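Weekly puzzle thread! Below is a chain. First person to post its structure in token form gets bragging rights.
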Amino acid sequence: MELITNEKCTGCGACSNACPKNAIEMKIDKEGFYKPFIHEERCIDCKVCQKKCPLNYPDYSNNHNPNVYALMAEDEIRMRSSSGGAFELMATEILKNAGYVCGVAYKKDYTTHHVLINDKEKMHLIQGSKYVMSNVENIYKEIGRILDLGGKVLFSGCPCQVAGLNVYLGNKRKSDNLITVDLICHGIPSVKSFQKYLKDVHHNRPIKHIGFKDKEYGWHASMTIDFDDGERFNEPCEKDVYFWSYLSGVNKNKACGDCKFERIPRKGD
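Winning reply:
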């Protein structure tokens, strides 16, 4: 953090996954973003964290002139997706071939983290956009182990997270068994801002489902929350206070203002 500074750190988690002594823990900072916290008593000053930071070692070796495609899935898939349904199409293909799919799921407190699934019955956990920062936890390590065993993996995340996975894996990132998908990202919102929204606007009522860009009321995106008591909250995205803060950029990680990973060549496949 002395080299990168808090303002530039994206919280991608590559350093915490790479540390051989588990001396780095991703914790939420005062503004609500996952940043690396170093347990000094475990640190052996091996500098692996510095070598595995994508900001220290940016890689722009991908295709400088990629082909561009547009697609949309059938309506049934798009209705349960946030956009065109491309993620479900790709994930289904990987799962058919006994592979693993990595995406973002909610925890019980509606913080988010990356998880791996290998069963289509669990697709709903990682489907749909979650407009809040995800903790990658130890997911890069798990992906590395699957690749070592010859397994297939589809990883979806923000460009900085794909960059973090790539630098963590090193040469293994070139495996034909790994496919990475980096979102065209609008920046990472604060975890604390979302928790404050659930508390101040919705009074921390028990929630059954949160749908960012829900399509039940038409293709115009809306914010939908289903509560355990059967009541439903629904507002157009531009009228919901949390979604408005996201769209206007007031709750973003400072690093997103000067993102090193949004350019062409992209980080993902």
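Puzzle host: Confirmed. Bonus trivia for everyone else. The mean pLDDT is 93.
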